[in-house]
Amino acid sequence: MKNAIAKYYAILEKLKDLPPLIFRLVIAYGFYGPAMKKVGNFEGTAKFFAKLDIPLPTFNAYLAGITEFLGVWLLLLGLGTRLIAIPLMVTMAVAIYTVHYKFGFKAVDNGYQIQLYFIFMLFLLLIFGSGRISLDHLIGRWRKNRE
After folding, report:
1. Which of 61, 75, 125, 143 is 20 to 30 A distant from 36 in Cα terms?
2. pLDDT tens for residues 46-55?
3. Which domain holds residue 55?
4. Mutual orientation of helices 113-128 and 81-95 as an angle, nearest 10°?
5. What spatial distance separates the first Cα and last Cα of the chain, rounded to whole Å?
6. Number of structural domains in the chain
């Protein structure tokens, strides 16, 4: 029995780099559509933000669009993951506050469920990093070898 448990834990240990990769890919995919929509139409996004009473709607449309666009690529590459996680979490918190909260929790009702899940996944990436399947890890190894 102890041997079977040891094998089970050994298998899990080999799989520990998959969750950060999966989280990064899922979040990047989730941000791709909204990012492209904002980047493709900053003026329309600014008008939408103005309707939501977001201050400085044009500035914030650019800020949100560029943050999300960069977030997609940085998460896909696993580059600067801990840095981009914070502004992406802020973007999701603003989306919850300005758009989704009034609809409740459930995603099917346009609630904040998915945005909250993204915040949790981004928080895990912030704390634990992008994992070994990332440019962050390769750069870290390269720097360590140069010392």
Report:
1. 125
2. 999 999 999 9
3. 19-146
4. 160
5. 45
6. 1
